[in-house]
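RESIDUES AND SHAPES:
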Amino acid sequence: MMGSIIICILIGAVSGITAGLFGVGGGVIMVPAFANLLQLSFKNAAASSLAAIILTSVVATVKNSGSNLVDWRVTIPTCLAAGLLAWFAGDWLKSLSNIMLTRMFGTLLIVFGMKMLWMGK
C-alpha cells in the first residue's frame, strides 16, 4: 500500500509540473501512469484522472489568472461547451471497451503530438 501512495505522489508531482508548464497533466500524464503503474483499467484511469485534476486545475488557474495569462473571452465559452459535452461523454465512456478507449487515446496523443512538433507556434 505504501508503494502505491508513493507512486501516486510521484504521478501527482509530474502531473502538477506539466499542468503548470503546459496546461496538461490529467490525460497526458495521469491516465497512462494510472493504467501502467497502478494497473487501473483505462476507464478507471480516465475517471480518476478527471477527479484528481480538479484541484490541479483550480490552483493553476488561480496562479495564471493572477499573472493575467488567462483569456476569459476564450476560457468561458470553451469551459461551458467542454463541461456540457463531458457530461454526455461520461456515458459514452461506459459503453466503450478499455481496448478501444486506449487506442483512441493513443491515436489522439500521436496526432496532436505530431502536429505540435511540426506546426507548433
User: Anything to note?
Assistant: The helical segments are 2-22, 26-37, 42-66, 72-95, 98-119. Residues 2-119 form one domain. Residues 17 and 88 are 29 Å apart (CA to CA).
